Amino acid sequence: MKMSGLLNRRSNELAGVVGTVRQIRTGSPVPRKLGAKDVAVLDLNRASPETARALVEAGVAAVVHVPRSGEEMLPRAAFRTLAASTIPVVEDADLSAVDDGTRVRIDEGVVYSVKGEGELASGREAGPATLLAEVDAAETGYIESALAHLANATEFLSLEHPLLLDGEGLPEIDVVFTDRHVVVVTGDLTSESQLHELKPFIKEYRPLLVGVDGGAELLRAARLTADVVVATPTAVSDEVLTDGAVLVVPADRDGRAEGLERVTELGVGATTFPAAATARDMALLLAFHGGAEMIVVTGDERGLENAFGSDSAPSSTMVDTAVSSRLVHAGACATLYRSRGAGIGMALVVLAALVAVAAVVVARDSAQDLLIWAVDMWNTFALWVQGLIR
Prior knowledge:
The protein is an alpha/beta fold. It is built from 11 helices and 15 strands.
């Protein structure tokens, strides 16, 4: 169905589809009241087949695909489901910042505000044939990218398997990782918000903090002191280099390291780490082979959606596999900690209630009755709390 062939009287007979923006976040269910007067805005690269079917069943006016910045189409079933329907699909029109509930008009891939008729975003309309051709091409490109990525990862493994398996070549640094929690903060765009969410965890567990390149700046901005900084000296500020953290400088396998002259000028010590790995991967290996109990890492989650993209280092595929038994993503850690904290908070509320009830019993019953009641209530409460923290 071509959008240019549709008219809406309430938009002054202007061509196109008129509807209300409904932002559907990744992992969130499709709103139950979604219907023909709505424009669904979502990332189809991360949409499940169930989500696509729900959009078709709701008969939405249009679907706007908003992928992550710089990301190509992935061969997801959601695209094929929409291609088999009559719902118009608009690509590359970034409506991610448009408020939910905004009335828009879409014509030939251009999105206008109904209220002011100003252009909000410009993309392109993909009909069923175009959409199917694009998803077929995406499938071919995805497999080719995976093969190239895995070939490079295998080459890295052939070079660095002693480092991955046994820690051979790790620099000796004056930091004890044994049986400690470690938080590795990278310079990725998502790290700042993740670090904020991790602050309660950091406050309670006092983990070792490792800043990787821009992640060291994020730690400093959050008023957290890095124990280790793994960074090219030219990529961080003088303040980071002189804050007192143990400085590890990534180097090529032949020992050449960029920016060492800056460290010399500042009069601080540094240890080089020669390896064909990224700074992030070096930080994970230092913690893992150092005996860390758990390693929390910030940054983009590594899934099949982005595992073989241009931003994904082949070394990370092998390093993440090597340290997987102790690796936890920051998002998962923050979620688990919030759940645990909420449970303990509820336990304290219940305990306070028990104390209040006990006061009433003291006022009304005998001491023996109070003792029997208190033992019974305490046993029940203790078992419940144990269930929360397991």
